[in-house]
Design goal:
The protein is of the alpha+beta class. Helix 2 packs across helix 3 and helix 5 crosses helix 6. The protein has seven helices and ten strands. It catalyses: 4 Fe(II)-[cytochrome c] + O2 + 8 H(+)(in) = 4 Fe(III)-[cytochrome c] + 2 H2O + 4 H(+)(out).
């Protein structure tokens, strides 16, 4: 009688633990999915409160905001999983700590727990994959009719920017361009709140077009390989640009500046260039500083660089 009663009690205890485990598993899955699905409503405020969780804040394009949200959401999901795992670890340590020499009840199968550690990782991977894929597709998306087209030509060790729109051709019919020299940091002028399609090509080796404030960079390849990407800059300002691919002796000096101005100023800049003004003169004509403000030429021997 005593043995049967003990067995019945043990069975009831196992069932009770199973129901508790099922509730924990269900609550854990529900909480995780809810947090990951709904966190997009306040990712900006959460990220700002915690300094972006290590991701640079202050992106100035539509793409940079989406990448920032993906990073913050991923960190929040990781923290949720971490808190759940840490909580279970400490609960087991406290609940099943050694109380004597007698071994506790050994449970061979626990369906709720098996369900938890099988389904929960799958949900985490599926949700992260979905948001990563959609963000990547958005970042790489190119519209059929962008507002502005710019060709980026990289070479040792400077940049040339050519404005490819039909209204940006000079008197000779050639595209207006700005080219950097050994003593001039080229300024790339772009309008805000307009879709800008960049075409990239290199004259010699692999370079990389990088504006840190865009939170984005794209390699520039030589030959017939042409990379392209599209952004919409949403904040006026002067933003430093760099080459992010080791390309030779003067790689560190391969700088440019992206100057984001209002669409009205951009049209006036293009009109001034069509009249024959240089880039510094055209910038001055629209009330902008003539030369780069975020970076200046590094001190080096210009003759040695030209000979290279």
């Amino acid at each position: 009688m005593f043995a049967r009663g003990s067995g019945a009690g043990s069975a009831r205890a196992r069932n009770r633990r199973g129901r508790v485990g099922a509730r924990v598993a269900g609550l854990g899955v529900t909480a995780l999915v809810a947090v990951m699905a709904l966190s997009g409503c306040s990712l900006g405020s959460v990220g700002s409160a915690f300094k972006g969780f290590g991701w640079p804040e202050g992106g100035v394009s539509d793409r940079s905001h989406r990448m920032y949200d993906l990073w913050v959401g991923s960190v929040i999901a990781a923290l949720v999983v971490g808190v759940l795992v840490w909580g279970l670890i400490f609960w087991c340590v406290i609940r099943y700590r050694k109380r004597g020499e007698e071994l506790p009840l050994q449970v061979r199968y626990n369906l709720p727990i098996e369900f938890l550690y099988t389904v929960l990782p799958f949900l985490v991977i599926a949700v992260l994959f979905y948001y990563t894929a959609t963000t990547q597709s958005y970042v790489d998306k190119i519209s059929k009719n962008p507002d502005v087209k710019v060709e980026v030509v990289a070479f040792k060790w400077n940049w040339q920017f050519r404005y490819l729109d039909a209204n940006a051709a000079g008197a000779d019919g050639q595209a207006i361009s700005t080219i950097g020299t050994s003593d001039y940091v080229p300024v790339l002028v772009v309008p805000t709140n307009k879709s800008i399609l960049f075409y990239e090509t290199s004259k010699d080796v692999i370079h990389s077009f990088w504006v840190p404030d865009l939170l984005f960079k794209r390699d520039v390849f030589p030959g017939n390989v042409e990379n392209k990407f599209q952004v919409t800059v949403d904040k006026e300002g002067s933003y430093v640009g760099r080459c992010a691919e080791l390309c030779g002796a003067y790689h560190s000096m391969m700088n440019f500046e992206m100057r984001a101005v209002t669409p009205e100023k951009y049209e006036r800049f293009i009109a001034a260039r069509k009249q024959g003004m240089s880039t510094p003169e055209a910038l001055q004509s629209i009330g902008e500083k003539a030369f780069a403000t975020t970076t200046t030429p590094f001190p080096y021997d210009q003759q040695q660089r030209a000979a290279s």
